[in-house]
Input
Amino acid sequence: MNNLLIAGGVGVAFGWALECAGLGDPPKLAGQFYLRDFTVLKVMLSAMLTAMLGVFWGGRLGMFNPAAFYVPETHLLPQLVGGLVFGLGFVLSGLCPGTSCVALASGRIEGAATMLGLFTGLLLVGLAFPSIEPFYRSTPQGPLTLQRLTGLPFGVMVALVTVVALSVLAWISKREAAR
Amino acid sequence: MRALRSYADPHVAGVCLGLVLLACFALTGQGLGASGAFASVVSGVVGAVSPETAVNSAYFRSYLQDGSPWTAWLVVEIIGVLIGAATSAALAGRIRLTFARSTRPSAARLFAGVSGGILMGIGAALARGCTSGLALSGGAMLSVGAWVFMVALFLAGFLSAPLIRRLWP
Output
């Protein structure tokens, strides 16, 4: 029960942040892929940087044990193909699963269309799963991380990702200032 | 028609979102998610309508094995997302039942919304997560699969966008 209260509370904060950023508006999200509006990249990179640095420094300061945090299983081929199919769908609907809920909650009817599609897509995969399963389970790497892949220490990998993400954010603001 | 009030600075909103994700990791040991909630609901419906179909698919079974799919952690989290987004939009004067930047429905956009949803459902199922659960949460934990998914997503998006330019002006 306590766990579900946390789920609800985290969800409210999550939806609030997405709505404030404007991520419930399909033209804004689709605009990212036409290089017209960089909100999606700005929000994603700032959020990822904040969480990654928080996980690293919180662990260093002994506030929690980051080694106990969930790392998704890597399956290279299904995640590569899944990402390509997902990206095409993202451009078409101008929303992703989380932001389709934000769109509907703020009254954009397109959010409901995307949610209907999501239910259908997942239903199709579930029904066809016996024939998809071999591909779904192919190329397993376990909970592989970038630091384990490269052999670099956690702190060095965090620093590298920070530099790359900040460079992209700086490039975006320079591009916007030039306009 | 009254103009919608403007949104927050994306960097500030992003840092807030990152702090929500960090709090989620610290409190529960796992990240945020979205597509998993949709998968739970679909599995719950299939399990109720045709239990035999649900049993025959390891995909549906995986969402039905840990108690009721209706009160799964991610389902409750997504109900929270709906409440949080509606509250934020209402307080900022941005809530309005409408079509995006248009008062009339566009058949092409609704069709694109549904087909895009279908493709994202298939993609998220194959990848084991979407932009929230895999790209953002897994990306922050430096998961290799999350970064492969994120790069593939943006690559497909940037390459396919010029082909469907007139959809979202």
Q: What stands out?
A: The CA atoms of residues 33 and 133 of chain B lie 4 Å apart. Helices of chain B lie at 10-28, 35-49, 51-56, 58-64, 73-91, 107-127, 131-140, 144-160. Chain B touches chain A through 122 residues (CB under 8 Å). The first helix of chain B runs from residue 10 to 28.
